[in-house]
Design brief:
Length: 324
């Protein structure tokens, strides 16, 4: 009896170990897949830096198709931004129609203060990120009006094969003339700002009408040119109720300023202490939905530790736009 019992116990123990080994192997495989996903994105974005910065021009000519009966290039791209969850676009697609000139970053989203908000806004959240700072139209230089924006892609460890999460922020749709981009706060409901320069008015009007049309056709409950929800970030990993801030704002934490004519040279991480470019993560909410009345609190930081300017950064890295 003792022999049989021991034999059965060993068989049971062997089965348990086998299951544990299989689970561990599967978990290890998922970890490798996740790690390779981030590594592969970084490799493609960082592997061939520009030797000289390009100056992509954003014009209404790029928005149009040769055949009037077909949808515009801008409408197609706007729909793609709302529907395509791929992190990288196919090579050889040409320049972006908007936000064409940019600089990419790798780093981490860190929440270090408790709040009422859920998901990735909860205290102790740490998420690897890729990001891209860019200007909406053609201006990249200090002497030019620049509509500065920052898009962030979240790649949490347990993301698996699911679509990455993204957030879009902008200082103002019309742009400003500002010496340092680091002095500009960006958020997910930017003001329209100043009237565009005369030569950009047609571009701005076409942009507004096309983006609204794309938002409606994608099924957004409240189509908007300026506001983008951050609810998917607050919902991530939650099985119960979700509490999302209305607004998220990024404000530079670095004290030093780098006097470079082109914002892409200004924002390179090697220009800053410990090779880190850091933004505070501020969240705000108000029942009236008026940003001017929001109560803001700083709950964490974006820390960028690597940066690059490259063709893949400018033409292939894709941020799927969350629907409202």
């Amino acid at each position: 009896m003792f022999y049989k019992y021991t034999f059965k116990k060993h068989i049971l123990l062997f089965a348990i170990l086998a299951v544990q080994t299989a689970v561990f192997a599967q978990a290890s495989e998922r970890t490798i897949v996740r790690k390779n996903r981030l590594d592969e994105l970084k490799r493609q974005i960082f592997e061939e830096p520009y030797t000289q910065l390009p100056r992509y021009q954003v014009t209404t000519k790029l928005f149009k198709r040769n055949q009037k009966s077909q949808p515009s290039n801008l409408l197609d791209d706007a729909k793609r931004t709302l529907r395509d969850n791929n992190d990288l676009l196919a090579p050889g697609r040409g320049q972006k129609l908007l936000q064409a000139n940019g600089i990419c970053f790798a780093g981490e989203w860190t929440i270090n203060k408790g709040s009422e908000f859920t998901g990735l806004f909860k205290d102790a959240s740490r998420v690897p990120i890729l990001a891209r700072a860019s200007t909406t139209f053609s201006g990249t230089l200090q002497k030019e009006r620049r509509a500065f924006g920052l898009a962030v892609k979240f790649l949490p460890e347990d993301l698996g094969d699911a679509a990455s999460l993204n957030i879009f922020t902008l200082h103002s749709a019309g742009g400003v003339t500002q010496k340092y981009m680091l002095d500009l706060n960006v958020d997910n409901e930017p003001p329209l700002g100043r009237i565009p320069r005369f030569k950009d008015i047609a571009t701005a009007l076409k942009l507004k009408s096309t983006l609204l049309k794309a938002d409606r056709e994608a099924g957004s409950e409240k189509p908007s040119v300026t506001y983008r929800t951050v609810a998917p970030l607050a919902a991530y990993g939650e099985k119960g109720s979700v509490v999302a801030p209305r607004w998220v704002r990024f404000s530079a934490a670095n004290k030093e300023r780098v006097d470079q004519a082109d914002f892409r040279d200004e924002l390179r991480v090697e220009n800053y202490a410990d090779h880190q470019l850091i933004y505070n993560i501020d969240v705000g909410h108000h029942s009236s939905l008026k940003k001017s009345k929001a109560t803001w609190q700083t709950i964490g930081k974006l820390t960028f530790t690597e940066s690059v300017t490259s063709e893949a950064c400018d033409t292939r890295l894709h941020f799927a736009h969350p629907r409202n």
